[in-house]
Design goal:
This protein has about 270 residues and is an alpha/beta fold. It is built from eleven helices and five strands; from the N terminus they run αβαβααβααβαααβαα. The longest helix is centred in the first third of the chain and has 29 residues.
């Protein structure tokens, strides 16, 4: 976690998108590590879920995924989160706000998707769209954008105080790698559905988005809601890194299996008698 964590004086432009901080292996080694980690992640997630089911443990995890198009958010949901019991996962995807959502404060739709106790929640995009695309596309006045940074910090402090461990991840992809991935989508019939001509328009605004992300890191990195920047030119590394961020967070909770609230020997005797 330390090598990916955003700290004071962090500069996004200094991150090598093709690097693999904290991991010295290649793709094959990463895939083996991902398989091993899947078992560890699954057991920890089940302990978190069971702790609330039997012991009313209020804690939960919230993974926030932010990235430019093609950076691999969907792959992380598919390849990392699929290792755990789906009944213990809450996935929320935030797209363009509806008319109803626009009639409320920007956090209104976010609050409705906060994971319940015992759950691992995943935000595929999030409240940060309202200070990223809203800033780049000038969808809100500057003073409103400024207000939102403080509102986000207050919101996340509230979540942390209620037992939510927050992991905010920005998947950082290079322009060259993004172009190659977009081109592959156009060359494969089974990937055409994933391509949107608007992706190219957003790509042209990449310098502005990098500036907006830098401001996000400067304004919303806090001890209780840290940001992690994950180099994402190698999909296998990004998936492994996020898996380990989740494992690290769960291990930090010092989880264990809940103690049964019934007499085990008595229940064995009842079964034997039947």
């Amino acid at each position: 976690m330390d090598v990916l964590r955003v700290r004071q004086d962090f500069v996004l432009a200094d991150v090598d998108t093709g690097s693999t901080p904290g991991f010295e292996g290649k793709k094959k080694e990463a895939e083996k590590s991902l398989d091993v980690g899947a078992g560890i992640f699954a057991e920890l997630q089940e302990q978190l879920f069971a702790g609330h089911q039997m012991g009313d443990d209020p804690r939960r995890i919230l993974l926030v995924l932010q990235a430019m198009d093609t950076a691999g958010k969907g792959g992380i949901v598919k390849h990392v989160m699929s290792a755990v019991d789906p009944q213990g996962v809450q996935l929320a995807t935030f797209k363009k706000p509806t008319e109803e959502e626009l009639a409320h404060d920007f956090l209104w739709r976010i609050r409705k998707e906060v994971p319940e106790a015992g759950m691992v929640g995943v935000f595929d995009r999030s409240h940060y769209e309202d200070v990223l695309i809203a800033r780049v596309r000038e969808l809100a006045p500057p003073e409103e954008i400024e207000r939102r940074y403080d509102a986000i910090n207050e919101f996340e402090a509230e979540l942390a105080a209620s037992g939510t461990v927050i992991i905010k991840v920005m998947l950082h992809i290079s322009m060259d790698e993004q172009r190659d991935r977009l081109l592959k989508r156009l060359e494969r019939r089974d990937k055409h559905w994933k391509f949107n001509p608007g992706d190219i328009d957003e790509r042209m605004l990449a310098p502005k988005y990098r500036e907006a992300y830098q401001t996000v890191f400067d304004r919303t990195t806090t001890p209780h809601a840290p940001w992690y920047v994950v180099p994402a030119d190698h999909k296998w590394y990004a998936r492994l890194a996020v898996q380990h961020l989740l494992i690290d967070a769960l291990e930090g909770m010092k989880l264990d299996w809940p103690v049964a609230d019934y007499d085990i020997e008595q229940q064995k005797a009842r079964l034997a008698a039947g």
